[in-house]
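Troubleshooting log. The previous run stalled partway through. Resubmitting the same two chains, unchanged.
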Amino acid sequence: MADTLLSLRGLTKAYPGVVANDDVSFDIRAGEIHALLGENGAGKSTLVKMIYGLVKPDRGEMSLLGAPYAPSEPKAARALGVSMVFQHFSLFNALSVAENVALGMEKPPRVGDLARQIREVSEMYGLPLDPFRIVGTLSAGERQRVEIIRCLLQDRRLLIMDEPTSVLTPQEVEILFATLRKLSAEGTAILYISHKLEEIRALCDHATILRLGKKVATCTPAESTARQLGELMVGTSFAAPASRAQATGAVLLEVTALSLPAPDAFGTPLREIAFQVKAGEVLGLGGVAGNGQDELLAALSGERLAPAGSVTLKGRDVSRTGPMARRDAGLLSAPEERLGHAAAPAMSLVENGVLTAARREGLVSGGFVSWAKARSFAERVIREFDVRTPSPDTAAGALSGGNLQKFVIGREILQRPDVLVVNQPTWGVDAAAAAAIRQALLDLAAKGAAIIVISQDLDELMEISDRFGALNEGRLSRIRPVSGLDMEQIGLMMGGAHGMEVAQVA
Amino acid sequence: MIRLERRPQPSRLWTGLTPLLAVLLTMVVGGMMFALLGKPPLEAIRIIFWDPLFHPQFAAYSRPQLLVKASPLILIAIGLSLGFRAGIWNIGAEGQYIMGAICGAGMGLAFYPTTSPLIFPAMVLAGALGGWAWAMIPAVLKVRFGTNEILVSLMLVYVAEALLASVSQKLLRNPEGMGFPGSRNFQQYPAAANTEIIVGTGMHWGVVAAFVAVIFTHVLMTRHIQGFNIRLTGEAPRAARFSGVSPARIIILCLGFGGALAGAAGLFEVSGPAGQITIDFNSGYGFTAIIVAFLGRLHPVGILLAGLLMALTYIGGELAQLMLGLPGASIQLFQGMLLFFLLATDVFTNFRIRVGTTKVA
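Second attempt completed without errors. Output:
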């Protein structure tokens, strides 16, 4: 084909114990937006790392505009016009936008010239950004713009984007899509990795679907339903969460006037947070990343003590008690960051079970850990939540993100909490596992627990929550019933309290 | 091209193999060093590793020395290993060792010349408390003000050494010592002496304490929730806080335990093998124990073996100085190599070597 930009032929990459990519071949045409779809562990990351020169394929070849293409490092890939925006940004918080952009360039121009270029490009593509702002003060959406502009300033033929919308508000997603369409119209191809099937259907010209390292199909997403795409990805059909009767009981958790200073220079202070959750209810808390989600979870889990009287569990003030006492009282939580926060990477799943379940599951008596009980608890989590692992003795860090997430959520749910707080319960988890986790949360609520789901995935929140609120700069919007909310209202709630007032008038 | 590739989880095989490999490499490179010094390398290695145990003439003297030299190393290293597992770096065990010796010896000398079976236990207690109190200084400063325990504990070694010089010349000086610095000799005060339990084996109360510490720590680390919390704090501090472990408590616990064991080791040494408080009774055990802790992979049984091995190189090193005229510094270099090779080969525990096929795709 004349307009083929990048052609992949038989790419294979094996890691010890797993074949990440097995004979993957497809073409990306110049100027198209090509989706790369697949479950967690399907081999998407490995594939794009090979294209970006971070990983060398064991077998197979690539060609760029007909010439052999084998980048030995990202620098070589960038020199040929292939650049990538990672899911986790590689920016220095303490430096300005222009300085961060300069750090990624081979021969950076003078700061003044660079700032002018940044302004021009950012205006041209509708990505407003002040080159002299310090990155630490930017929102996640703005940080992504820095990464995109960094790529746009260079010679570009192919832009790889790894789950770009997970940190954006609906309005920001629209802006991003407009930018990507404009780029594609100008001839830049985009390789777009996402789990969000509707998004791919709206944006992408073609989609390549990977399963267990193999390519299963290349199709035109606009001509397939989200369900068909999802089933291609998973290989089986999966159930959407069952709807359930609205039955809410007594208030289990009440938060009043919860204010806490920021934990560090780039954290968010919590300001006058107030809400209630009732038994049997799911409260969804949305908001763009970095608006107080982690801080709220820490204040609820007990990692940071809250002002006296601000957190009341079943009528008892637990604000000044630590995580263990709160767990004993029935308030459990699962933080967003799996590795190093919710779980210790180098420790086994058995040990990671003890991490939070030691007391509620009676794994410790007289100070001594019963490893037999701990093992059977870990095995129960693995079985009931379909955690794919060679054994309960495998280190948590050796599991794929989705499987570890299932373990972390399962570990808390099996302890039968009265109140469960989860942050990003399905982040980076494949569609089938995400559906299973959501269903488990709903089942738990149906048994009379109160659940708080903090998430950046609005579709998820709309699907499982009874009521919805949004965090913005550490403030919580008014909580509103989900039924009757539309995307525009949600966007305004996420944008801050002032927007909210307008929305209420409207 | 040779590349390092991170293993999904640390290799158990290599965890056990690296100390052996390190010893082997030390022998090879150490032997080369001895050869360069103009000494017969094989003989030197044999004298260091073999003769202390099996030489027909010297073994009778040096075999008991093995336990005498190993027990303070093991006792201190066991105490340090707890903190090292939790990511708390107590570098000042030497100071805690000295302070334990001063406090314990002071307790014993205060009762001179009374005889009571309670004196020696009281001295052990005072020694452990002295070491504990000295370790509480970096602990409390870290908890209250976030100071760096590495610097504070290390600096306190020099303070302890200055105190030792002072007490051996003034406060604890032997009134019947004709003005020489140094305390009374405990060998001449049986109620306060750390004597051999079985004559001719080198087995004194410090050796017993070291074995008890090994077993206690092994049980603590593998079975007890506090041991789990210590490991968790070292592996993932945020996860430990999420679990409900108080970092302050772990700091106090680990530094305190390390200080108490180092202090007790100091007392056992001063009331036994050394015999008296002198300006330089401490022979750097507190620093060597850091090597022992790592050589033993921070594992109690490993530390036991590493302590014995290190003691062997001490005794063998002295023997080699005596028999071959090797300079003392070369023996220290030899011991330093051991730690260097251990840390170097340690890479294989977490990484595997890939000889990359730089084939152009």
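Takeaways: The radius of gyration of chain B is 22 Å. Chain B has a mean pLDDT of 91.
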